[in-house]
Specification:
With 351 residues, the protein is α/β, with parallel strands linked by helices. Helix content is 25%, strand content 25%.
Length: 351
């Protein structure tokens, strides 16, 4: 008969390396990291890596580019030389920082029990820093771009007969979003010289579009019993004739430490931005906006992460994340902002 697991026997087995207690479960943790697809800033507008924290860039004059300068050549003379003007713009990347600590003493338990790498505090803190930077980037992006003041063309939803720059709420049975977007795309082509290629929207707007009668009518014959028709982001991109349809799902806690959580969506859940942006920085293409990101370390990465030791007596380590960006609205005519796109009382239907 084996010896009972008394405290003395357990202590002896631990000392001999036979028994290793599980301080924490090795296959489970409760970490509320958000899905990468829910962050909108890096998907909708291009990141421009820059080697200098501040510099200038050119904007060619739209009026000169669209004005016809060609004319009949007079006999023994020449036409007036065409004007091809440009303006200087400047960016100025400011540094943002996040720091988190690792208790070296508490970390000894993980090391001595051969805990798997999945619960290594350094790995968890590294992911925490990346999450913080993505959340901060989305927050700055939304405050700069996902607001009506950033764009030349702003529309607003209503539940009464629309007039001027108004449209029916997308959750209104009279609403036809495809008709609205087609008209807005034509206007952008006229005044911005490009048709929109991307849409970013709040999560309530996405829900309203998924159940909009005019949209459901257009796709009702595309499904089968095995695969019923569903209004996905890809379907909406095709219906609205854009390259990408992005839903902002990132959530931020606006409460201070010690207060009750105040969880809110980073971007206005009831708004939508229709825009034209390049997939990458370009010298011969316009773009609604750019996010300039300073490559501080010179290694092609705009997010710098490093680890360093604390003071000797603290028995601590620290991990630091640095991000230096500047968000620029480059072409206000290449964005159309739809505010209050759903009714104030709208709630997405339960699945």
């Amino acid at each position: 008969m084996s010896n009972p697991l008394t405290p003395e026997v357990i202590a002896y087995n631990i000392a001999k390396g036979v028994f290793k207690p599980h301080i924490y479960l090795t296959n489970l943790s409760l970490a509320y990291f958000q899905e990468a697809a829910g962050f909108i800033s890096q998907r909708l507008f291009p990141i421009v890596p820059v080697t200098l924290s501040t510099a200038k860039f050119y904007e060619f004059d739209k009026g000169d580019l669209t004005r016809i300068a060609a004319a009949r050549k007079p006999a023994f003379g020449h036409v007036t030389p065409a004007v091809f003007g440009k303006r200087d713009h400047s960016y100025d990347c400011k540094v943002d920082q996040v720091i988190t600590g690792i208790d070296a003493i508490a970390n000894l338990d993980f090391q001595r029990t051969n805990a798997p790498g999945s619960i290594d505090p350094r790995r968890a803190k590294s992911r925490f820093i990346a999450e913080q930077m993505n959340l901060h980037l989305d927050d700055m992006w939304s405050k700069k771009y996902f607001v009506p003041s950033a764009w030349s063309n702003v529309w607003e939803g209503t539940d009464t007969t629309p007039s001027g720059n108004q449209f029916y709420f997308f959750d209104n049975d009279n609403s036809d979003p495809i008709k609205i977007f087609n008209a807005l795309a034509t206007t952008m082509r006229q005044f911005g010289l490009r048709k929109p290629n991307k849409i970013g929207c709040g999560i309530n707007v996405f829900g309203a579009l998924q159940s909009n009668p005019a949209i459901l009518e257009r796709i009702k014959f595309q499904g089968s019993e095995a695969n019923p028709a569903d209004v996905t982001t890809n379907v909406l991109a095709q219906l609205f004739k854009v390259k990408e349809f992005v839903v902002s799902e990132a959530v931020v806690n606006r409460a201070k430490i010690g207060m009750d959580d105040d969880l809110q969506f980073v971007c206005d859940p009831n708004a939508l931005l229709l825009c034209y942006t390049t997939d990458a920085p370009a010298i011969d293409e316009p773009s609604a906006g750019y996010t300039f990101a300073w490559d501080m370390l010179g290694n092609g990465q705009y997010m710098a992460v490093q680890q360093y030791l604390g003071q000797p007596a603290t028995h601590s380590e620290f991990m630091e994340g640095l991000l230096a960006t500047d968000h620029q609205v480059a072409s206000p005519d290449l964005g159309v902002f739809l505010q209050n796109a759903v009714s104030p009382s709208y709630q997405p239907a339960a699945a």
